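Case study: VOC family protein.
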Amino acid sequence: MRQPDIEIYLKDADHDAVIRWLSQTLGPATEWRKKGQTYKCEIDSAAGLIPLTWLPKAVGSWHSLYLDSPSTPWADDLACARAAFTALGVEVRCAPGGWLEEEGEEDADRWIRISADGEEEITWRTG
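Here is what the predicted structure looks like once written out:
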């Protein structure tokens, strides 16, 4: 089942490299608009505009990348995280699937880590 949006976390990722990867993969990006600590733009993809949010240092040295659309080439966070690791060569983390508050706090700390060591499920307490 396709997720309605995508969110991944990239460790020490270069913002310009991320934008180059997304532009090559999805289409050109509009100018970035800074709102508080976040940056927003849209990617003009073949499937329409994809709203994009970049939050530098969302959790320590981890940057959040959020694509607010089901119209990406990735069915879920994990597929996007794998593609980001392949393209950028930085450690990437994502939720193992969609998460709802009613699932409880324990499941909120379950993450998939993708790095040069491979792929593994970890506990990552971000709050």
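For the exam, be able to explain this: Residues 6-123 form one domain.
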